[in-house]
Amino acid sequence: MKRVYTIFTLMALLLTLLLSACGGNSTTDNQPSQPVANNAANQLAEEPAEDEEPAPAIEVVDSLGETLVLTAPAQRIISLAPSITEILFAIGAGDQVVGREDFANYPEEVVALPSIGGTWGELNVEAMLALEPDLILAAPLTTQEQVASMTDVGLNVFLMPNPTTMEGMYDLLRTAAKITGHEEETEDLIADLITRVDAVTAVVAEAETTPVVFYELDGTSDPAAPWTTGPGTFIDTLITMAGGKNVSGDLDGAWVQISAEELISRNPDVIILGDAIWGVTVESVGQRAGWEAIHAVSAGTVYPFNDDLASRPGPRLVDGLEELARLIHPELFE
Question: pLDDT over 90 for what percent of the chain?
Fold first, then answer.
């Protein structure tokens, strides 16, 4: 209210000066001009404007149970995970991202953003400070030491949760939307994602079989004992939603190695090569000792796959679900 009052007072003074310059004591309807202007200003000052109510604070809870309070949506954000970067661009907050982690590569325009290091290596705190962020969004992979190195210099850090279900992913989108002020468009995005997921599950429900699926995360270092995914991961969830059965879903641990002997005995129907980006090919898998006995190899159901679509908890998980469903049940998508 103080601001409104001051503006109208200045207007009154200017009006008085103008009238004085034009005619000294000129009046309108025999009434002095200055009191009229002052009365208008006083009337506005006494009646609070509804649009001057302060916006409610934004409160969100991170993965450690800590509450972040913002007086307004964050406008200069550094993202410390490729999945978070993808989420921010998907919900319409891409223009608010001023820095990224080394491995962020989607969408294409992300590559042009300044990189501040990698979660798996060292974070360049000085580079982060130079970007003058008002918020750092980190993933659970960010270590306590890394968080401390940022908070110690006054950076505001929020640890985003790491979901393992579609519902958890939708909630993650809503958290990002609340932080950035893009709630309406995010709800539209979620509605579209739900429609696509429902379409896949409706088709898969007609499947007459449940193929056993081996998802190879990394077979580059030791092809005789490749890394795969156990229970409780998004990859495990997507395989199940796509109408398959994770061959290693009963193993102990989210990320595990499985011996070639064990895999051959379990005899998966489909092999998904999430490590295709690192040079693993369908042909190289077929040349591994003993793997010719695996049904997927002999039947030609070994497929390269973009692991980003299954390992990054964001909207593109739905792309991954659609692709996995086509690979596991091609007969339903002909």
Answer: 76
